[in-house]
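Researcher: Sequence recovery benchmark, item below. Answer with residues only.
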């Protein structure tokens, strides 16, 4: 495991020492929490701006039972990944986009948010402090989980008076249990993930609690995950519990479920999931299996283009990569 000291971080940043070792089998690592050394924390009051954060040892946080996040779900999360390259650089993929999405979500959830620069600097510090937990090239990535929560007490329904921005990290491998094998989805027709005017368009924590029931039922029946339909027409595809859905067309638009069933190829994407090919979709008891005869799957091309960029193996013509 690399414990390179090639990267520098601020004076307030604890970091691992070259003698630190970790005991992980990188070939079997999945998507579960592996506790790392440090997390980042920054607080501010309602109506003020975030100013100074710090790295602290990873551990439980002290929060009032009356906190806004616990009582009224005032919370957002983000997800991004850091990759180690063969020359021992550390790369982030478009972290400013995650920061922008958090700012947008915070506005919807009545929370102050870190600025883009504060967010990216905090991500960099947290990654560097936990550098030894970044898997070797080709063995996975360091999943970075920024959280923004209403941590202040609030009994009557109102925005909390204090907010906490936190970042923790965990080394991860493949999201789904069967590695990179194509996944099997079932379409949910009764429960919905988002409604017009609701919060489906922002990454608030409650959106994810709302999918657990359908996901649990589907998993018990052997499906990998659930695909949701829109709540008004019940025919347009929305997203999968843990990722986005694509059917192979060069357009961004609403897709009717019949088009999905007749597609040549279907795949999902997400920060955690990566690019995952879909083997089958089950809708109203009927299972459609997607042919794999053509070797040139769009999902495979996209997956290698994306991971090539993320791992520093192909030229970054879009300036999407941030090197630490
Ligand atoms: C993402 O990858 O965008 C996620 O939200 C993943 C999470 C549900 C584990």
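Model:
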């Amino acid at each position: 495991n690399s414990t390179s000291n090639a990267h520098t971080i601020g004076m307030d940043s604890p970091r691992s020492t070259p003698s630190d070792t970790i005991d992980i089998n990188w070939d079997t690592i999945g998507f579960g929490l592996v506790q790392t050394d440090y997390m980042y924390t920054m607080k501010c009051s309602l109506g003020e701006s975030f100013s100074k954060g710090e790295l602290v040892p990873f551990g439980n946080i002290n929060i009032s039972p009356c906190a806004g996040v616990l009582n009224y779900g005032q919370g957002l999360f983000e997800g991004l990944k850091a990759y180690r390259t063969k020359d021992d650089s550390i790369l982030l993929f478009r972290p400013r986009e995650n920061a922008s999405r958090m700012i947008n979500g915070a506005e919807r959830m009545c929370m102050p948010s870190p600025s883009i620069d504060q967010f990216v600097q905090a991500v960099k510090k947290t990654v560097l402090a936990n550098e030894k937990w970044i898997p070797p090239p080709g063995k996975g990535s360091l999943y970075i989980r920024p959280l923004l929560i209403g941590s202040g007490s609030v009994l009557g329904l109102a925005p909390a008076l204090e907010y906490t921005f936190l970042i923790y990290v965990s080394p991860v491998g493949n999201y789904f249990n069967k590695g990179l094998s194509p996944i099997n989805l079932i379409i949910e027709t009764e429960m919905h993930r988002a409604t017009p005017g609701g919060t489906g368009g922002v990454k608030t924590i409650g959106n994810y609690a709302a999918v657990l029931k359908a996901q649990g039922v589907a998993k018990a029946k052997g499906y990998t995950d659930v695909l949701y339909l829109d709540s008004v027409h019940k025919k347009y595809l929305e997203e999968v519990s843990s990722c986005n859905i694509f059917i192979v067309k060069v357009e961004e638009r609403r897709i009717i479920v019949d088009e999905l069933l007749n597609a040549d190829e279907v795949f999902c994407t997400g920060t955690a999931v990566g690019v995952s090919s879909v083997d089958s979709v089950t809708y109203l008891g009927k299972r459609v299996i997607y042919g794999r005869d053509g070797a040139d799957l769009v999902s495979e091309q996209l997956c290698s283009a994306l991971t090539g960029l993320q791992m520093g193996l192909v030229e970054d013509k879009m300036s999407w990569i941030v090197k630490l």
